[in-house]
Amino acid sequence: MNPVSEEFFHQSTIDLAKALLGCILVNETNEGITSGYIVETESYMGPYDRAAHSYNNRRTKRTEIMFGKAGLAYTYTMHTHCLINVVSAGIDEPHAVLIRALEPYTGVDLMTKRRPVDKIKNLTNGPGKLTKAMGITMEDYGRPLFEPPLYITPGIIPEEIMEGKRIGIDNTGEARDYPWRFWIKDNLFVSR
DNA sequence: ACTGCGATTTGC
DNA sequence: CAAATCGCAGTT
C-alpha cells in the first residue's frame, strides 16, 4: 500500500484526528517492517489549548516542529517513553494529533520481540507502548509521514467513531473537558 | 484507585 | 536549581 498524499493532512485538526482512525501507520527499519491500524487519537490545538505543549504559541526547541507544515512527525519524550504526534494545520499554527493506540497489523513478531507482553491486547494500547513496539524514537522527530520509512497509508473506514474527553491532562483548567479524543467504537486496542 | 519509577524540558 | 510532564506496570 502506498503512503497517503501530503494533501491528506490539509484539513482541520479535528477532521484529521477522525480521518486518521482506520489508517495504517507503517515503520520500515533495519530490523523489519511493522504496521498497525490507528484506533485512537487526540487533537491538540496549541494557541487556545492549555493542555498542548504549544499553548499560547509557546515556541521552543521542542515545539518548533509544530509550527511547521502539516504531515510531519512530532515526537517527544515523556518520562521514559517516546510519544508520536502528527503535525496539523498550517505554517505557524502549532496544532497536532496524538496517536494513542494501534491495532497490530504486520510484523507482530518483531513488535513482541521489542516489547514482550503476555497478551497481544497490551502490545500497542497506549501512546508509549506503540512507539516502543514499532521502534519509533526521537530519531523520527520532524520526519514527513507521507513517505518512507515512517508513513501512513489508507486502511479501513471505521464503522462508528466515538468521541470524549482526553486522557492524562487533569490539571489544565477548562481544556481538560474538551471532547477532542476520538476512537473506533468497540475496538479492543483502545487504551481505556 | 493508588503507588513508584524516571528523564527530558522548561521556567524560576 | 526545582517543578512539571499528553505513561506504564504493578499492587491494593
TrEMBL record:
A Pfam family of this chain: Pur_DNA_glyco
SUPFAM superfamilies with a match to the protein in the record: FMT C-terminal domain-like
GO molecular function list: alkylbase DNA N-glycosylase activity
Record keywords, A-Z: DNA damage, DNA repair, Glycosidase, Hydrolase
The keyword DNA repair appears for this protein: yes
InterPro entries: Formyl_transferase-like_C_sf, MPG, MPG_sf
E.C. numbers: 3.2.2.-
EC category: hydrolase
Family named by the database record: Belongs to the DNA glycosylase MPG family.
PANTHER family listed in its UniProt record: DNA-3-METHYLADENINE GLYCOSYLASE (PTHR10429:SF0)
Official protein name in the record: Putative 3-methyladenine DNA glycosylase
Lineage: Bacteria, Bacillati, Bacillota, Bacilli, Bacillales
